[in-house]
Specification:
Layout lengths: L5 H11 L3 H13 L3 H20 L15 H10 L6 H19 L15 H13 L3 H21 L4 H4 L5 H15 L4 H14 L16 H20 L8 H14 L16 H15 L4
Helix pairs in contact: 1-2, 2-3, 2-7, 3-7, 4-5, 5-6, 5-11, 6-9, 6-11, 7-9, 9-10, 9-11, 10-11, 10-12
Length: 296
């Protein structure tokens, strides 16, 4: 169910004289047979879960592999000390993306947006934007509908699975969702919203999924940072009046095609790329030995 394309979404919004995010919300109401209050409450619940996950970060917690943990706290300290060239806002986007990715690696509760492997992108940007610009929470929740609508179309036309389309389908999708949603929150036109999403996805086309040891840690967590930072830059470009030459739907279709052409070794199997570097092999061997060790 849902929209078959971003153009379809735009057409529905224009016919009803409503913004894109509201067209997504009304489609959800129709599909699930729920009231506006019920669908808003459900999205608010998701947003509060993102906030709780951010607040619940534990800087001393390490993942089972030992590959993740503490970097979010290091980045936060660096930003607080005024050392980040990227500044306070972008520094906190980076910080939150790291924290969320590390929390996921440490088996803490996160919100898949659209997947657990890409869970850091949307909350990193949304929570920081609300904090720095004092945006009403209701407006942020409306933005989540825009993000969800874009994600639904991408899932339908291409994929949001690293095992099917590589990391472009996970972090690439999250970045596109986030860029479109942020532009919606900022009051961008439909053309600007769709341009921002297209820019973000284009920027990450071809990104492979080659995690060390098959774990959603290295390089996945840092790629969440890249996706979040790119989303902000893409929103800025669109808001400045820079518009995409390739429609968002065509970019989505291109991502799906690239995913189909991508070798299986670069789609979550850890059989190529970073996973088979000397370091990657050592990590895989260490994990295999740990798993064979009897547990008390």
């Amino acid at each position: 169910m849902g929209f078959i394309s971003m153009a379809d979404m735009e057409k529905a919004a224009a016919a009803a004289g409503i913004p894109l995010w509201k067209a997504v919300m009304e489609e959800d109401m129709k599909e699930r047979s729920v009231s506006m209050q019920e669908t808003m409450d459900k999205m608010r619940e998701r947003y509060h879960a993102m906030k709780h996950a951010d607040e619940d970060y534990e800087q001393n917690l390490k993942s089972f592999s030992g590959l993740s943990g503490g970097d979010g706290a290091n980045m936060h300290r660096f930003v607080r000390e005024g050392e980040a060239v990227s500044g306070g806002f972008m520094g906190m986007v980076v910080t939150r993306a790291l924290k969320m990715g590390e929390s996921n690696a440490c088996m803490k509760r996160i919100v898949a947006a659209p997947t657990a492997g890409a869970c850091g992108v949307v909350p990193a940007v949304f929570l920081t934007y609300e904090q720095f610009y004092r945006i009403p929470e209701r407006t942020m929740i409306e933005g989540l509908f825009m993000a969800a609508g874009a994600g639904q179309v991408i899932a339908r036309r291409a994929s949001i699975s690293g095992a099917q389309g590589g990391c472009q389908a996970e972090v690439g999708t999250a970045s596109a969702m986030c860029a479109a949603a942020l532009t919606s929150i900022r009051g961008g036109s439909n053309e600007q919203i769709l341009s921002a999403g297209a820019f973000a996805m284009k920027s990450l086309l071809g990104l492979v999924c080659d995690p060390l040891g098959g774990l959603v840690e290295i390089p996945c967590i840092r790629r969440n940072v890249a996706g979040a930072v790119s989303a902000v830059a893409c929103s800025d470009m669109a808001m400045a009046g820079i518009l995409t030459r390739v429609p968002f739907d065509e970019v989505i279709d291109a991502m799906g095609e690239i995913g189909e052409m991508m070798p299986g070794g670069l789609k979550e199997t850890s059989q190529a790329g970073l996973a088979v570097t000397e370091t990657g092999k050592r990590v895989a061997l260490d994990l295999a030995q740990r798993n064979q060790t009897p547990q008390c």
